[in-house]
Amino acid sequence: MDVTTCLKSLLLAIQQYRDSRTAQHAAQLQKQVETLVCPLRFHRLFSMSGPLSAHLLTALSMASREILHSSYNLTSTLAAVIHCHSNTPGEALVLQCLQVLQKLTYNTRIFQSASCIHELITFLMTNIQSQNEDVVMSCLGLLANLCRDNISVQIYIKSLDNVKQFYRTLINFLAHNSLTVVVFTLSILASLSLNEKVGEKLFDAKNIHQTFQLVFNIIVNGDGTLTRKYSVDLLVDLLKNPKIADYLTRYPHFSACVSQVLGLLHSKDPDPAAKVLELLLAMCSVLGLRSLLCEVVFKPAGPKLRAAGRDGGRKAQCGLALVQWLSSPVEGGESCSLQVLQLLSELLEETLGAESIPDSTLSFVEMLLPTLLGLLKGLNLSQGDAHLRKHCLRISYVTTLTLPLLCTEDATRSLVSCQISAQLCLSQVEALLSCCHSSNPLSCLQVCAEALLKTLELMSKLRQHVKDMETSFYRMLQDQRIVTPLSLALTSHHRDRVQTGLSLLFEATPLPDFPSFVLGESIAANNAYRQREAELSVKRVAVQEVPPLRTNTSTLDSSSVSSKSVHSLVEKIQTGLELQEQVKDSHVSEIIDVYEQKLGAYASKESRLQDLLEAKALALSQADRLLAQYRFQRAQAEAEARKLGGLLKDAERRREELKVELSGQVLEVERSRADMEELLQHNSRLQRDSEEHQALKGAYNALLNRSERLLKEVQAAHVSLTKQTDTLKKNHEALQLQQNKTASLLQEREEEIRSLNSDLQKKNGEISGWFSQERRDLEETVDVLRKELNKTEQARKDASIKASSLELQKSQLETKLKQKEDELNKHSAMIAMIHSLSSGKMKSDVNLSL
Asked: Engineered SS bond to 277: which of 339, 424, 486, 776, CB 3.0-4.6 Å?
């Protein structure tokens, strides 16, 4: 088995064990770990560089972090180590402990009653105030983790005597040259003093815009992933304050900053993308920012994107990055996909609830729908419970995102009905029904049931607009397997699930084959199970139900019970304190720590209940808005009905009048028909002329391109020929000079020969008496001179031949150049003729249309 197969098997085993911690899954996980821990494979695992190995190492590190914190109490152990070495803060062991604690406590709740936490906080504050550069960054980051969303730690720090001096030190750190130090400092100040006078002065209207600009700059151009992560957390915490959220709505550079933040989604790394989406979802919780986010996400693209295609100009440039994450194949990108779906649900709900929907939003919806429908595919039951849960969650989010599109204008409704098919919905419902009746855990069953009901609700909205959708919808409602998910929805404690189940039950009750009796028995069984579960007194691990897509429910009973339990806990603490005064028991401090831990837990529950109440209030406001829209639409429909009634009466009255005019209109219709035939013939002629014009235009463009190309070739040839001509001229002049020199030399030699001949004739008589040897010498001299004369004559002939050949080449090149110039003149004449023809044709077309 190769390393890749081992990694995939180990990832699957980890996901199965997370979903269901059974002995079988534990044994399977242990077997896969033992298989991978072979020395050769383990070495190859850490030497691989790919998304699969990175995803595995991330899963292992996350699991290790959770186990070290929850099971082995590593936080208190490291705090004790730091306390023992508090006198040497610059020691390597202390620095390593601080770094491990910073990673271990990120997004983790730490109770201040835990062992050595008070000493750890004192150590951090002391070293921050001493401004020890070796440990100040780690101390600030760790203290930011401890203070965030931790009321008990915040109260403890505020109760210290040197807290004002500590605030002054933190404010001085805001001018630090390291952006990471500035972000850590702002996070601590926001956690400790946001609702106090110091925080009001620090984050007032004068300074908040600079803070926004600083945080956005760090998010976009930060020092790294750690700084960007803490910057996002800081901005999310600031948005929880209504006053700061209102400041952000009036921030003039908000749209530009959000556009730059959305640009970070173009990377393939899921971790920074998840933080960016977390920030955008936090912004969606602020009513004043949702409309601004819609303008940024759904704004049209620039000219470069418009030139990419016919419809490219209507697409949203920033929204395109969100759509890409929906179908991204990156490992670990599933959570980003769900975050994008939730974000788009919020934004589309905002923009579709307006009086008029912008064209850019409709274009974005048209681009988004194919990707959304593609997410509905790919359900494979053989890939385990984790894959099933992810796919069902994805289906629920997609249907929740699609349903608002069907409740607005006809434009969005037609877009959805054109993209979706009855066969797709039917196959999804069949697969989800099979999942509901397979041997899956209860949590998977509930997720599948919710996805199934959402799909059926989508089919109910589309049954009048998609072919065969109504038949498929009613057929699925009469299936016996629908009882289980429908009974789970009707007995759920989530309001939206109950409402969905009731609406489907209202549609299914009149059907002849609907299993009403079986549904009643299933509801009774579910109620009995819930009652028996409530009566159990033994502590057990409760099966957690998957939260709905939009948290809009909260129970007032649980809030009242929580408040009663808190009051009883306070009374017990007071009683314990009285006993402590009376009886100084050594174990009272431990009991108080336990009570403080429970009090913190109850406070966290109370905060969650408060969040649920706020979400419910938000949902109620949205419901009121929808009711107002419904009343407005109903009033419009009634007014249109009354208007149509009056128009009907007018039509009846005018019908009699029109009957008299009908006979006269028949003749006019005949004349109009003849005119129509003439217009059709004229239109056909115009069509032919237009086609001829298009053909001539294409031929003109082709000929123009060809002429330009030929012109460039001729110009290049002309330049090369000109250079050759200049070279030939230079060669000709050089040869001419050489020929002149040779001719002059030849004439000199001829003169010498003539003079020698004359001398020879004169002295011929004189030398007759010379010795025979001298006579032979003279004859040899004459022969040598004759040979030199012959060589000179031959060189002269060769030079003449070369000159004649060069003159011939020059004449040929001039002839060729003249031919090229003639062709160029012909092409120019043809182009001018085509220009004149096209301009004349266009004028004739204009005259015909007039």
From this structure: 339
Domain boundaries, the chain: 1-37, 73-127+138-152, 606-715
Report residue 188's pLDDT band, with 50, 70 and 90 as the boundaries.
very high
CA-closest candidate to residue 392, choices 459, 338, 322, 340: 338
Q: 284 near 266, Cβ under 8 Å?
A: no
Residue 538 in contact with residue 508, Cβ under 8 Å? no
Query: Model confidence at 674, in pLDDT bands (50, 70, 90)?
Result: confident
Cβ atoms 528, 520 nearer than 8 A = no
Residue type, 490: L
**Residue 625 CA neighbour count, 13 Å, CB half:** 12
Under DSSP, the state recorded for 160 is S
Q: What is the mean pLDDT of the chain?
A: 78
DSSP string, 315-326: SBHHHHHHHHHH
- pLDDT confidence bin for 112, thresholds 50/70/90: low
Fill in the DSSP letter of residue 252: T
Which range (20-34, 61-75, 230-244, 583-597) has the least confidence?
583-597
* Cβ neighbour number for residue 810 with a 10 Å cutoff: 15
| Angle (deg, nearest 10), helices 254-263 and 287-297 | 60
User: Picking from 239-243, 484-488, 686-690, 833-837, which range would have the lowest pLDDT averaged per residue?
Assistant: 833-837
Closest CA to 279 of 265, 295, 267: 265
SS3 for 196?
coil
pLDDT of residue 202: 87
The first and second tokens of residue 696, run together, are: 């001539």
Helix, strand or coil, per DSSP, at residue 140: helix
Q: What is the pLDDT of residues 377-421, one digit of tens each?
A: 767 666 667 778 888 888 888 888 888 776 666 777 888 888 888
Comparing C-alpha atoms, which of 162, 96, 170 is closest to residue 134? Answer: 96
What pLDDT does 625 receive? 65
The Cα 501–Cα 506 span in angstroms is 9
Q: Is pLDDT of 374 > 80?
A: yes
Q: In this structure, what token pair is assigned to residue 332? A: 């670990």
Cβ contact 274:236 at 8 Å: no
Secondary structure (3-state) at 300: strand
The count of other CB atoms within 10 Å of the CB of residue 739 is 17
Name residues whose C-beta falls within 8 Å of residue 716's C-beta, 6 or more positions apart in sequence: none
Tokens of 197: 């006078």
Task: Report the 10 Å Cβ neighbour count for 734.
Answer: 10
Secondary structure class of 492 (helix, strand, coil): coil
If you average pLDDT over residues 496-517, what whole number do you get?
Answer: 89
CA angle 504, 506, 509 (to 5 degrees): 105
* Contacts within 8 Å (CB) and 24+ apart, 747-752: 749/788, 749/789, 749/792, 750/789, 752/785
Determine the distance from the C-alpha atom of residue 627 to the mean position of all C-alpha atoms in its chain, rounded to a whole number: 34
Both tokens of residue 818? 């003249």
What is the rounded distance in angstroms from the CA atom of residue 782 to the CA atom of residue 777?
A: 9
**Residue of 286, 297, 284, 360 lying closest to 325 (CA atoms):** 297
**Once rounded to an integer, what is the mean pLDDT over residues 700-704?**
87
Residue 142 has pLDDT above 90, yes or no: yes
